[in-house]
Amino acid sequence: MGGAFQNGLMWVVYNDLEKNFQNFLEYVPLVSVHKKVYSQKLLQLMLQIGGYVDTAFKEMATYHSFDGNQKCEVIRKKLQLEKP
Questions:
Q1: Are the C-beta atoms of residues 56 and 75 closer than 8 Å to each other?
Q2: Most buried by CB count within 10 Å: which residue of 2, 12, 43, 51?
Q3: Secondary structure string (H, E, C) spanning 17-81
Q4: Residues 52/5, Cβ–Cβ less than 8 Å
Q5: Using CB atoms within 10 A of its CB, is residue 22 exposed (0-12), middle (13-18) or buried (19+)?
Q6: Model-level pTM greater than 0.85?
Q7: For residue 43, what pLDDT is reported?
Q8: How far is 49 from 16, CA to CA, in rounded Å?
Q9: What is the predicted pLDDT for the residue at 69?
Q10: What SS3 state is found at 14?
Q11: Run means of pLDDT, 10 residues per run, the chain, 84 residues
């Protein structure tokens, strides 16, 4: 792990997700009258963003430059428990 973070792929994916969300907001602005708006596109985007955040934090926690970071060590130990 850590390769996608190190080679910049995580940044590329982030920029793409951000652009997609901004495009969505052109059609459904983020205002209180839209609190209950349902959109399959928004649902898909939220699931992608949630998955990305999970993956991004795992990538960052295993990045070699953070080897001495105690909080990253805690995350790494938890990740080892999740492996099948």
A1: no
A2: 2
A3: HHHHHHHHHHHCCCCHHHCCCCCHHHHHHHHHHHHHHHHHHHHHHCCHHHCCCHHHHHHHHHHHH
A4: no
A5: exposed
A6: no
A7: 93
A8: 10
A9: 81
A10: helix
A11: 71 93 92 92 94 86 78 81 56
Neighbours of 52 (CB within 10 A): 15
Q: Dmax of the chain from CA atoms?
A: 47
Structure tokens at 43: 């649902």
Coil, strand or helix: which one is 82?
A: helix
Predicted local distance difference test score (pLDDT) of residue 82: 60
Residue 83: its pLDDT value, please? 53
Cβ-Cβ contacts under 8 Å for 49 (sequence gap 6 or more): 17, 21
Tokens of 24: 């969505």
